[in-house]
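Reopening this one. Same input as before:
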Amino acid sequence: MHYMILIYEDESVYGDKSDTPEMQAIVAKHWDLVSDLGDQYKTGAGLAMTSAATTVRTVNGKQTIHDGPFAETREQLGGYYVIEADNLDDAIAIARRVPVRFDGSIEIRPLLHPPGK
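Same output, byte for byte:
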């Protein structure tokens, strides 16, 4: 089964730039995890800061465009993995290994239609 692992953190802990030593250190930890996962890792990516986001919101059939994410939250979606695991327990074990700098949460969701299927 394929699962998406979503990484939520307070992006302000990394500063305004993506090339800070703090960001480089956490990215290195992610690459280590990808290497350890081997064939279980299917795809993934980090996301640009929310200041680069645009949201298309539909209400009663009318669409509006907004700068940034629609929801104001303390944690922002910072990246994701798509993995293959035998079951939810195995996916949880992988999610526990996903590095976050300070506080954060990792959401695990089964994919309805796995890649390539």
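So the earlier flakiness isn't reproducible anymore. For the record, The chain has two helices and six strands.
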